[in-house]
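Go through this pair.

…
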Amino acid sequence: MKKICSILISLLITAQTGLAADTVLLNNGDILTGTILEQTPEHIYFKSAAFGSISLSPRDVLEIRI
């Protein structure tokens, strides 16, 4: 239930800003919203307003929504 609420809140925030954003759901339940800069078999390069540019391991990612 907590995951569903987090996803809905993230979607509402994105819808309210009017900007298209990528959403990354991590295995630990965290949700990141921003832009996927590049995706390789070893890394997902992601940029968000909250965290800046980061590199994620694909093994830590549950789902990507574009």
User: Anything to note?
Assistant: The radius of gyration is 12 Å.
